[in-house]
């Protein structure tokens, strides 16, 4: 099963991932993206959020 990983040091908090996959991402208390439910959105939707990240802070991680 794939899991989503967000590199907090790279994330700029633009919110694109939350806008595209709101069931899988949310912003944390520091304004950075964090994965919340890997089954929340379809993998294609999550992939579009990964692809839209302007700083490439989101990636798949094999679990």
Order of helices and strands: EHEEHE
How are the strands of the largest sheet arranged? 1-4
Task: Please report the number of helical segments.
Answer: 2
Q: What CATH architecture would you give?
A: 2-Layer Sandwich
Largest sheet: 2 strands, antiparallel
Report the top-level CATH class.
Answer: Alpha Beta
Distance between the termini: 6 Å
Can you tell me the CATH topology? Alpha-Beta Plaits
Structural summary, described in words:
With 63 residues, this protein is α+β, with helices and mostly antiparallel strands. The protein has 2 helices and 4 strands; from the N terminus they run E-H-E-E-H-E. It has a single domain, classed as Alpha-Beta Plaits (2-Layer Sandwich), CATH 3.30.70. It has helices at residues 16-20, 43-52; strands spanning 2-6, 25-27, 33-35, 58-62. A two-stranded antiparallel sheet has the order 1-4. A two-stranded antiparallel sheet has the order 2-3. Strand 2 and strand 3 (33-35) form a beta hairpin. The longest helix is centred in the last third of the chain and has 10 residues, at 43-52.
Short key terms for the protein model shown above:
4 strands, alpha+beta, 2 helices, two-stranded antiparallel ribbon, Alpha-Beta Plaits, 63 residues
Quick gist of this model?
The protein is an alpha+beta fold and 63 residues long. It contains two helices and four strands; from the N terminus they run E-H-E-E-H-E. Helices cover 24% and strands 25% of the residues.
């Amino acid at each position: 099963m794939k899991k989503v990983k967000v590199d907090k040091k790279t994330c700029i908090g633009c919110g694109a991932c939350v806008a595209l996959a709101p069931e899988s991402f949310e912003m944390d208390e520091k304004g950075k993206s964090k994965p919340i439910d890997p089954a929340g959105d379809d993998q294609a939707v999550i992939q579009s959020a990964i692809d839209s990240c302007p700083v490439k802070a989101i990636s798949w991680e094999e679990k």
